[in-house]
């Protein structure tokens, strides 16, 4: 091989090496530029403020919701307490009112089971008999209307003085007495069909059940067709007015 050929080959190899180095340098330059472009397109600084803003917004929203929840929970609690307090007071007042209405004494009719009766001949007015009924029970009782009396074997009961009717029913507390008067005969002797009666039955009123049997004087009492009775009265004086 000639010396020229050898030198030519060496120059060619050198040129190839230079070309390779140049290409490598170019590729490395593009690599740097590519990395620079990639770093430029990444927007980390801009995403960070966005994330912080979102966190602040979420924190504010959560705080508002918590405050709203706390407020909504406290209001029904206060309202409920007020309602319960008011309702309790109303129930208490209603109970007191109901108790005050029902606290009065129980009243029933006077009967032979809770009362006793006496018959007394009085000196004034003449020819009068006083009937006294006394409450022997533990509760108030009423004597209604007028007594139905039967002397001896009489088949009918005497009429009542209508003018003697009281304005209210006579109510007897335990131990109290009510009164009725009986006109036995005409004071001037104008009556007819008179007779002497030695026994007496008294019904508290015409609708009563069992009869009282008060004692009469041993000699009996004189009765004629003038006989009449009064309504039951609260006082003895009222019973002897007729």
From TrEMBL:
According to its UniProt entry, this protein's organism is: Streptomyces phaeochromogenes
Q: In this protein, which residues make up the domain named DUF4232?
A: 110-233
What Pfam families does the record tag this protein with?
DUF4232
Q: Does the keyword Signal apply?
A: yes
Question: Where is this chain compositionally biased, Polar residues type?
Answer: 105-116
Q: Which UniProt keywords apply?
A: Signal
Q: Where is the composition biased (Low complexity)?
A: 37-53, 63-74, 85-104
Record-given protein name: DUF4232 domain-containing protein
Signal peptide bounds: 1-25
């Amino acid at each position: 091989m000639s010396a020229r050929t050898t030198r030519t080959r060496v120059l060619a190899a050198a040129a190839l090496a230079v070309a390779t180095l140049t290409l490598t340098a170019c590729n490395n330059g593009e690599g740097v530029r590519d990395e620079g472009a990639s770093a430029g397109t990444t927007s980390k600084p801009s995403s960070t403020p966005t994330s912080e803003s979102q966190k602040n917004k979420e924190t504010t929203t959560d705080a508002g919701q918590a405050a709203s929840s706390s407020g909504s929970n406290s209001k029904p609690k206060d309202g409920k307490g007020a309602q319960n307090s008011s309702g309790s007071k109303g129930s208490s007042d209603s109970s007191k009112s109901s108790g005050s209405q029902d606290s009065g004494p129980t009243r029933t009719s006077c009967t032979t089971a809770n009362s006793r009766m006496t018959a007394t001949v009085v000196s004034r007015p003449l020819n009068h008999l006083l009937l006294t009924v006394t409450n022997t029970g533990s509760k108030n009782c009423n004597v209604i209307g007028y007594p139905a009396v039967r002397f001896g074997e009489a088949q009918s009961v005497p009429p009542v003085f209508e003018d003697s009717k009281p304005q209210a029913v006579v109510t007897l507390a335990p131990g109290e007495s009510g009164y009725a008067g009986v006109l036995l005969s005409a004071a001037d002797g104008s009556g007819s069909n008179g007779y002497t009666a030695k026994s007496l039955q008294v019904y508290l009123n015409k609708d009563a059940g069992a009869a009282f049997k008060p004692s009469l004087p041993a000699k009996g009492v004189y009765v004629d067709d003038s006989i009449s009775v009064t309504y039951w009265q609260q006082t003895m004086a009222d019973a002897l007015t007729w």
